[in-house]
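Example 4.3 (complexes with small molecules)
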Amino acid sequence: MIVVMRPGAAKDEVDAVCSLIRSSGLEAFVSEGQERVIIGVVGVDIERVAHIGTLPGVEQALRVTSPHKLASLEHNAERTRIAIGDVTVGAGSPLVVMAGPCSVESPEQLFSTARWVRREGAHMLRGGAFKPRTSPYAFQGLGEPALKLLAEAREETGMPVISELTDPGHIELFDRYVDIIQIGSRNMHNFVLLRAVGQTRRPVLLKRGFGATIDEWLMAAEYILSAGNSNVILCERGIRTFERATRNTLDLSAVPVLREMTHLPVVVDPSHGTGRRSLVGPMALAAAAVGADGLLIEVHPDPAHARSDGDQSLAFEEFGALMDELRRLEYLRSNGKREVRPPEVPVGVGGIRERIDTIDEQLVQLIDERARLALAVQSAKGMDAHGHDVERERQLVERAMTRSTGVMDADELELILKAVVRASRSMQRRHAADQRAALRVAPPKERGAQSEPRPTAGGQSEPS
Ligand code: PEP
Ligand code: MN
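Answer. The structure with phosphoenolpyruvate bound is encoded below.
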């Protein structure tokens, strides 16, 4: 800390400041300039002179070291990476997507969501069991049975689960069922709860209080860290401002700001951050683009009938589309990491063109053949299932890229493969929707003239 005295401060005033510093077990280094005196304060427990700025003759007291001792980069220059089962969050690990319903409502609702988000490539399952609601009359969550369902969904899908803790008395319960403990926005200042989760070794996702500054948020993290739990993940979920167009104002600048201040992973929740389904996708992509380590996204099989936060929950297909977009962004972000071989220069322009023409023809045939096979998969699974398999798609792209020996670099090759996969998915969806529409509404003569359904604002696919 540096204490700057007012110009012309009396010697008595300087002495009083120095003696307070020394009697607090700290050291004072006095530097006398032409106009004013400056005192450097050195020592571990700077907090003991936190109010020194109010002493007579003092103009201001400036902190030079971070008050967030354990959370700050000064304390730990290496970024923290937290492992939860097979998933790792932070320190440059790939973007982690935690998705699921705001509240666990029933086994069917949870399991259908878990299967869907897993299939679309989510890494973790979220679901509220104890809901902190503004109104005491609103749905408060199913409690322990919901935690059990989450643990069963983890068994089936292999995805670790995250749920919000509201009561320190439930810690043992959460230890039994949950992989990440969420501390909600309303409880960011609940220091008893923060200390309690500091006693466990479970990773904690600490949401930003909707009225909290970044400094206050980091001090809340400090409560958990200083109690002995170093597995803290920060989650930006929007703050309350004068703006009414969104439920909260999602402070995405918090991500790069935190990157300069702390080694802890930072996750973004665009669902609570915006409160509107149509804004979740764009803000999720923006969060990934500014370097968030993960996303927390609400997904519901039937958002219109969700018992909490339906307005901001994505329907299944919307979530699938967002995951596609996120993967495209991820490959853009991870460019230049693969070896590029020098191109072979063939001889004779005429011969080369002929060869290119032949290859183009083969490509068209192969793409057509591939599409027919993809459609066969779709038909085999039935019109309500998704024909594609995210994991297989990813493996295809990775396999092709590691085997790449040509003139295209990995990104260009990936562009092409992903375009093929996306077109194939779009084709599968169109055929499935056509089938559904034909069964439900379309008169027979209109069948076959359906165009691809587009998601509406409400997220439902509408038969044309
Ligand atoms: C939630 O994640 O469902 C939730 C209640 O979030 P927040 O604490 O950010 O409002
Ligand atoms: Mn919610």
